[in-house]
Amino acid sequence: MAPRDHIQLVEFPNLVDICGIPFPRGPNFRQYLFTGPPGSGKSSLLAKIRGWPLEGYIDLTRSGWWRDRSLSYRPREVHLGLPFAGIKEGLTVFEAEWMENPDRMILEPDRIVTPKKKRGFFSVDWQHKFVFEFLIPPAEKAIEWRRERMKTNLVPVEENITLEIIEQQNRAYFEAAIAMQRRGLAVYIRPGLYDLPHRIEGENVGRCRVGQSSETLLSSLSQAITLATRKASRLEPKTKFTPVTGSIRISTDTGPLRLLISKTEFHLIPDLPLKGTSRSKPHDWLLYDPVIYPEKLGAFCRLKPGVHLAVGDNPWVAATLGRSATFAKPGLRIEIRNSDLYFYPRDKTLALEIACLPQSVTKKIRKMQRGWLEGFAQAGELLPKTEALHLLKQTNRIIADEVYRPRDHKAQPGALINFPPHLTPVIVGDLHTQLDNLLLVLIQNGLLLALREDKAVLLLLGDFIHPDSDDIEEMASSCLMIDFICKLKVRFPQNVFFLRGNHESFSPDVAKGGVPQGQLFEHAVRKHRGDKYAEELSRFFDGLALMARSEDFIACHAGPVCKIVSEETLINLKHHPVLAAEVMNGRALKPGNPFGYSRSDVRRFRRLMDVGVDTPFFVGHTRITLEDGVWFNTGKIPSNHVIYSSGKKRFGMVMRIKDTMVAMELTHEPLIGLTRIRSAKKRK
C-alpha cells in the first residue's frame, strides 16, 4: 500500500477494445462522459470511437446538473465548471478569469454537488448513470501538443500557456476527480489518448479533505501519472534473442524484429511501400507468422501508429496470427508512439524474447510482391475499343453460366451466390475506381496464388465504379476498373465474383453530390467505346448477383431484405425491384436515417438465408468516417459489419482465417504507377 499521503493510479485488470482504445470492462459505451484540461485529447478520442461530436458543459456547483438534457447524448465531451474560492458559480480552467490568476485559484471540492444514492425502486440511479473519464496527460507532454495547436490560431486561450499553468489545470481536474469518486460517482483517469485507463486508489481518497493538501496532492498526481504512462526501458536488440522481463521500448529505426512469444516465432516489420523505403512519416508495422506470410492466405496483423495491438486479448488477432494456443491472457500489448515501439507484457508468465531480423527478409517479401504485380503489367492502361468490347463479351458469357448460383425462373443465374466451404472467402467493399487498393489485396498475402490453385474466392461487394472523392465527374477510371475486373473474371472464372451495388447502373438516379454519375458514365462509354459496348456493359450490370452466402458469412452491397420471403424469392430477387432496392440501397437505422434497417431485420435476414444467429453480415455502401475502412456492429447490430475499400489512406477487407472471418485494414499505396513503369519496360 502506498504511504498515507499518496495516491496511486492502478491499471484496470479487465479491459475491452473499442475502436483501438482500451476501456474498462463493464461500463456501457453510452455511459461515458469525457473530460479533462484543454488539449488533453478528448476530441481526438471521441472522433476515434465515433462518439457524439458536440461539446457539453456541466456546472458542478449547480444541483441537478445530472438532469441536463445535453447529457442524454453520450458518449460525449464535457467541460467542467469547478468551484473555486471566492467565485460563486463554477468556472472552467480556460476562462479568462482563471487564466489571469491560476496561482490564486484554490479549488473547493466540498462545493461540488453530486446526486444522492438511489432510494426508491422507481427512482433513477443517477450515481451510476454516468462514467467520467478524466484525460490528464503529463504537463510535459501536454505543453508540446498545445503549442502545436496554438500555431493554428484556432485556440486563442492557448497564447500564454506555460508548463506551470498546465500543472495547475491538471491539479484542479485531479482534485475534482477524487471528490467525485469519494461521493460515489464512477471515475477513472487516462494519462493519454492511447494509454490504459486507471482507477484512483490511496487512503486519502476516502479519508482526507481533498482540498487541504494541494502540494502533496500535486506531487501525488505527478507520481501517479508517471507510473501510469508505464515507463519503458530502452532495449537495443541483438542478432540473438534477448529475454524481456518488463516494459521496453525499441527505436523504429532498429528495423524488422523477431519475436519469440511463448516459444513461437513471429516477425514484426515496417510496412514500407513497394516503390520506396522513405521514412518521412510514421509507417504501420506488420506482425505475422513467418511460416505462412506472405505466400499463404492468412496471417498478419497491422499495428498503426498511436493504436495498441493486444496479442492474446483479442480473438480476432489470435485467429489472424493462427497460433492462438500459444498466447496466454492477457498476453502482450504492442504500440507505436513517436519513433519507438513499446512492448508491455501483461502477464508475468508470458515468455517474450526479441532479436533483430535481417533486412534481407523484408527485401525478399517486397521482391516477391513486385513479382506478383508484374502479372498485372498493363493494369493502369485503358484497353483499345475493340479489345475492351471483346473482353466484356467474354465476361458476360461466363456470368451467363456462372457457377455457385442457383437458376431463377428464367433459367438464368439467380441473385444469390452459394460459396462452397472449401474455398477461403476474401471480401472487398466499395472500391469506387480505386484500382490501387484491389491490386494490393491481390498481392498482399498470397491471394493471387490461392486463386490460381482454386483455394480461395474473391468477392467484390459492388460500387467498383464512379469515384467517391476528388473529381467525381471523371469517368475514365471507371472504364479502367471495368477492364481490370473483367480480366480477373476471365482469368479466374470460378474464383472471382461481383455483387451489384447501386452505382452499377446508367440510371439518372445514380448521383453523388448532385453529380449524375450514372448518366455521365453512360455518355462517356458511348462516346469513347460506342453503343455496342454500352449495351454490353448494361447487360453486365444486369447479370450480376445481389447476395452471397457461405457457412462463414452472408453479404450484400447495402442492407438486408426486410420482409419474410422464401429462398426462391431470394434467388429471383432481380425480378422483385422493391426488394432488390433494399439490398442495393439500404442503410442501418440511426438518428439521421429513421427508415433504415434494424437489428430485427438482420435477424430475419439470417433466418431467410438459413445461417446461424451469429453469422457475420458484411455490407458496404455506407462510409462512416474518412479515415477507416472497417466498422463493426454498425447501427448497434451485432455482427453487422461495414467494409469499405476506396480509402486513400486506409481501406478494409475481410478474409477467413481457419474458422474465423477476420476484418483487416490495409494502407493505400499507388501501385498503378508501378504497373505502368513495368509495362513500358516490357515494350522496350
Give an account of the 3D structure.
The structure is a single chain. With 684 residues, the chain is an alpha/beta fold. It folds into three domains: 8-228, no CATH class; 233-357, no CATH class; 384-683, Purple Acid Phosphatase, chain A, domain 2, CATH 3.60.21.10. Helices cover 29% and strands 20% of the residues. The chain is built from 17 helices and 31 strands. It has a six-stranded antiparallel beta sheet. A hairpin with a 4-residue loop joins strand 25 (547-549) and strand 26 (554-556). Helix 4 packs across helix 6 and helix 9 (385-399) crosses helix 13. The longest helix is centred in the C-terminal third of the chain and has 27 residues, at 517-543. The protein starts with 7 loop residues before the first strand and ends with a helix.
Global geometry:
globular
Q: Give the tally of structural domains.
A: 3
- Largest sheet: number of strands, sense, barrel closure: 6 strands, antiparallel
Major sheet strand order: 11-20-13-14-15-16
Integer-rounded radius of gyration = 28 Å
Helix content: 25-40%
Under CATH, the topology of the largest domain is which? Answer: Purple Acid Phosphatase, chain A, domain 2
At CATH's second level, what is the architecture of the largest domain?
A: 4-Layer Sandwich
* Average pLDDT metric: 83
